[in-house]
Amino acid sequence: MSVASTSLTSLEMAKTFLRVSDSNLQVDAFSIYNNSSDATASTIEVTASSVVLIVTGGANAGTSTLDITAAAYDTLGELTTAITALDKGWQVTRLSNSSSTSIDLALLSSTGCFNFANIQYLTMTNNYLLERLIDNASVIIENFCDRIFVSATYTNERYDGDDTSRLILYQRPVTQVKKLGTQIESAIRITYTDTANAKTTAYFRVYDNTNLDLHVDTDSAIEVDFATYTTITAVSDQINSQSGWTASIQGGFGNYKSTELLDYEYGYCLDEIQYAVIATQFVGDFVLYPERGIVELNRRWLPTGYNNITVTYVAGYASTAIPKALEDVTLSLVSWKYKKLGKDTSIKSEKLGDYSYTNFDMTDALSEGQMEQLYTYRNIDIR
């Protein structure tokens, strides 16, 4: 595990704030030895990017190198499971959290570990606890302020048109408005016909600008991947190829990219018609007020409707430019919970284990003073 990309401070800053060094956070990561009956020796080495296991002699002889930067082995749980799966006589017992990051293992030169008498205990910098606390403190602040602070792209967010020229976006500061659509139109007409009258439900879903899924009762979903079916025509044709499903292009949108289809939850279409939709009528003549997250259209109005306005935009602060007040409150929450958990400079692996979420709970942790610091950044819904 590492600190989430949306967190409001860094692991290094938290360590500095708490006056904790890596040497204070050393814990046992896992124990290991090799018990191959016909081998003559075995060694383990840990480098900055790999764990190297060598068996000398016998049927298991050979070298196994596991890249601890690779996704398959980048957590302690994955790494220890992979070592056991080598089936080369390695006996491994994990002693720290399964989600701990493998690259936090302490470096180890080639060391003998043949038979239990030479068992080795590998150590690591236990960043897991602080990482979890940082993430949870950041979420507490985001929830209180009702916004996300680290820069991200928000795709096809939906808003109600209210016959005014002003749109208040959910996130701020806004650094770019990529698209602003003022109308929703049907792109694909979809239905499922149950000729045997034996089905109880059928529906489609569009989600994450990546997929359209078809569902019938408890059958496995049929996935129409936009990376494969890149146009709305291709999506429609794929739907038509599925038993019982019928689709047809609407409004001449067949050549539009399939990723233009808007997210749609549960379009029920068992013996009835539903439509996958897209945004149209895009406007670019507006004034943006970045810090307030306001878009002001010039000489036109947002037509009245429910979820009929769509906006794709970029908002938030660069991870290196989080306002000091936000980072200060984050660090204070981390410090408060860290001390409350009773962790000090003599942390032992047996104290850590696999923490449950409730151990990190910071509900109602914000003090009145901290809330006052955050009020400036809090979203107040005035729509």
E-strand count? 19
In angstroms, what is the radius of gyration?
28 Å
Sheet of most strands: 5 strands, antiparallel
Secondary-structure element sequence? HEEEEHEEEHEEEEEEHEEEEEEHHH
Task: Provide structural commentary.
Helix 3 (128-145) crosses helix 5. Among the domains are: 25-126, no CATH class; 152-315, no CATH class. It is α+β, with helices and mostly antiparallel strands. The protein contains seven helices and 19 strands. The chain is 19% helix and 34% strand.
Question: How are the SSEs ordered, and which strands pair?
Answer:
Layout: H1 11-18, E1 26-34, E2 41-46, E3 50-56, E4 62-67, H2 76-85, E5 90-94, E6 108-112, E7 120-125, H3 128-145, E8 152-161, E9 166-168, E10 174-192, E11 202-207, E12 211-216, E13 222-225, H4 232-240, E14 245-249, E15 264-268, E16 274-282, E17 286-289, E18 294-297, E19 305-315, H5 324-340, H6 349-352, H7 368-374
Antiparallel strand pairs: 1-5, 1-7, 2-3, 2-6, 3-4, 8-19, 9-18, 10-14, 10-16, 10-19, 11-12, 11-15, 12-13, 17-18
